[in-house]
Amino acid sequence: MTINQLLEQKLSAAIEALYGQQPVGQPLQLQPTRKEFTGDFTVIVFPLTRLSRKKPEDTGEEIGQWLVANTPEIKAYNVIKGFLNLTLDSACWLNKLNEALDQPRFGLKSAGPDAPLVMVEFSSPNTNKPLHLGHVRNNLLGSSLCRLLEADGNKVFKTNIVNDRGIHICKSMLAWQKWGEGETPASSGKKGDHLVGDYYVAFDKHYKQEIAALMEQGMTKEAAEAASPLMAEARGMLLRWEAGDPEVRQLWATMNEWVYNGFDETYRKLGVAFDKIYYESQTYLPGKDKVLEGLDKGLFIRKEDGSVWADLTAEGLDQKVLLRADGTSVYMTQDIGTAALRFAEYPIDKMVYVVGNEQNYHFQVLSILLDKLGFSWGKDLVHFSYGMVELPEGKMKSREGTVVDADDLVEEMVTTARDTSRELGKLDGLSNEEAEAIAVMVGLGALKYFILKVDPRKNMTFNPKESIDFNGNTGPFIQYTHARIRSVLRKAEASDIQLPAAAPLVDDLSEKELYLIRLLNAFPDTVSEAAQAYSPAVVANYLYDLAKEYNQFYHDYSILKEENADKRTIRLLLSELTGRVLKNGMGLLGIDVPERM
Fold first, then answer.
1. Strand-strand pairing, 83-88 and 41-44
2. From CA 215, how far away is CA 213, in angstroms rounded?
3. N or C end of the chain: which has fewer CB within 10 A?
4. What is the rounded CA–CA span in Å between residue 304 and residue 311?
5. Ranges of CATH 1.10.730.10 domains, the chain
6. Residues facing 25 on adjacent strands
């Protein structure tokens, strides 16, 4: 039984004994006591005055007196206005510390045989460009969300849908045909995704030049865009692809393979993996079949130009195109086909799409369309909508080649981590191999933590310089705290200090020691809260608070030089559990922590 469960049980008993009834229609409101007040847990008394028919202060006093008299775990209470603050006995907290120490996976649940299966889609790259900073946020959020859902007792299946067809892909292919001169990743020394991305930028450059030339001849911008020979060629290539033209298909397969090899390398650097990858080229046809099936059933309409639309005005939305006039499909068509395939293949209980908030409307429409098409799970899909990420210099544009490439970003982070760590003496005494491993760990940890500590629903600005700081709310600060703890424990072992499996029960723990135990005890609830709120930021900021609290404890109290053996043991076991929670918690964010630094 958790402390929260114990207190809720005792509160219910107190209310029953004092007032002869139980609150109906709302749970008891119990929360950790704010740091500026005395106590461990606070009961919000105001809702209970309807039962007591007394002032909040008097109600709190009565309940507090009953709890202290009837609950050995509660040693004191105080009432401030309508808030009852409860202080637990040291033995209660030490028992909780020992329970946690006895669990190697403290705070992390395991999925049972009947656990729900949650499928999470994330990444969703296009094969016309390399992964960039925006993709990095998507991949880190999606990957961390999967770990959190698993740690909360779910079975998780990680999927990716690669947008490997469409006009944007044809732009890169056409540009390579025109100006590539047979260039390959091997001949150029470039990663394949970078090479193909260069041709996407080249297409846009020539297209803009073409538009400018047509406008000089007197055309409006709209007329020039409609008359563009280059764009007409790209559209023609897309039609040839959909018709199965062997030459176009061969070029498409070759260039996509270059990109996939590049993607795989970037995924490895980021520590991202998938259980299954779907490809739009394999799902758009089932999607078209579903759309045509819906058309036959009168769910959709065909317009005079031959295009197929969903009329969603009855749902308060507008009309949405599902098939273009030339018969080619759109993203919505592909998503319908992909969803149908997934639910046919796997017994999915919940489907989560990790996609930026610019697609909120898209997923609102997708949910409605899937429901209309008879998929009972359609209306229950979850769009994990996250904000955009920018640099201090502003937004990024793929077509203009102004994006921050994911590989370049990782390399920059590792270089900065290496230089900063060396400058601060964090790598002193380490071999070159150890120093490099820590530089990679710190660089990636800084990148991941800086992105994941922000509420995913908010837009954010990523500042590489701010992220690598060994002080403040950063990944390196937490990593260094873990290394510090491991150093303390190594010194204890070197001094032949043997740690028992459980902490001795003492009565004179300090406020800082008790607060640290209380904070550690909150880890399981924090993991569940983060998973259920789809927010890795909840865990990230908890870990910062824990690391900050441990460092204050480390500076204020002697550990290895403490003469009282029981106190020294408790402080070492507190260090052991803090290190374990930091390691497991950072692992949920996809971040490794060093043993030494």
1. antiparallel
2. 5
3. N
4. 15
5. 406-588
6. none
Distance CA 379, CA 404 (A): 36
Residue 270 neighbours by CB under 8 Å, 6+ apart:
136, 139, 140, 143, 406, 410, 444, 590
Q: What is the pLDDT of residue 330?
A: 87
Contact predicate 160/124, CB 8 Å: yes
Distances in whole angstroms, Cα of residue 151 to Cα of each of 107, 157, 173, 584, 597: 8, 13, 43, 10, 28
- Per-residue CA distances from 317 to 114, 308, 323 (Å): 38, 17, 18
**What is the distance in angstroms between the CA of the first residue and the CA of the last residue of the chain?**
38
CATH 3.40.50.620 in the chain is located at: 122-390
Q: How far apart are CA 445 and CA 425, in angstroms?
A: 18
SS3 string of 494-560? Answer: HCCCCCCCCCCCCCCCCHHHHHHHHHHHCHHHHHHHHHHCCCHHHHHHHHHHHHHHHHHHHHHCCCC
Q: How far apart are CA 60 and CA 258, in angstroms?
A: 68
**Residue 376: exposure state from Cβ atoms within 10 A (0-12, 13-18, ≥19):** exposed
Q: Which numeric CATH code is attached to 3-88?
A: 3.30.1360.70
Give residues with Cβ within 8 angstroms of 490, minimum separation 6.
none
Long-range CB contact pairs, 341-349, < 8 A, 24+: 341/278, 341/283, 341/286, 342/119, 342/159, 342/278, 343/375, 343/377, 346/117, 346/119, 346/157, 347/117, 348/117, 348/118, 348/119, 348/157, 348/377, 349/116, 349/117, 349/118
Cα(60)–Cα(172) distance, integer angstroms: 70
Task: Describe the chain by its helix, strand, coil percentages, rounded to 5.
Answer: 55, 10, 30
Structure tokens at 204: 């846009």
Bridge partners (DSSP) listed for residue 278: 161
pLDDT at 464: 80
Would you say 524 and 593 are in contact if contact means Cβ atoms under 8 Å apart? no
Output phi, psi for 358, to 5 deg. -70, -10
For residue 291, what are the CA distances in angstroms to 71, 301, 329, 332, 370? 64, 10, 10, 10, 10
Return d(Cα 298, Cα 246) in angstroms, integer.
Answer: 36
The two three-digit tokens of residue 85, written as one number: 């603050």
Sign of the CA dihedral running 124, 129, 130, 133: negative
Q: How far is CA 351 from the centre of its chain?
A: 15
Whole-model pTM: value is 0.91
Contact in structure between 457 and 386 (CB atoms under 8 Å): yes
Query: What does residue 93 show for φ and ψ, rounded to 5 degrees?
Result: -70, -40
Q: Report mean pLDDT in 10-residue bins for the chain, 597 residues.
A: 87 93 79 91 93 94 96 95 94 94 95 95 94 94 98 98 93 97 96 96 95 94 94 94 94 97 96 96 93 95 95 94 88 93 93 95 95 88 92 52 79 91 87 93 96 95 84 94 97 93 89 94 96 98 98 96 94 97 98 94
User: What stretch(es) of the chain map to CATH 3.30.1360.70?
Assistant: 3-88
Q: How far apart are CA 272 and CA 516, in angstroms?
A: 33
CATH topology of domain 406-588: Isoleucyl-tRNA Synthetase; Domain 1 (1.10.730)
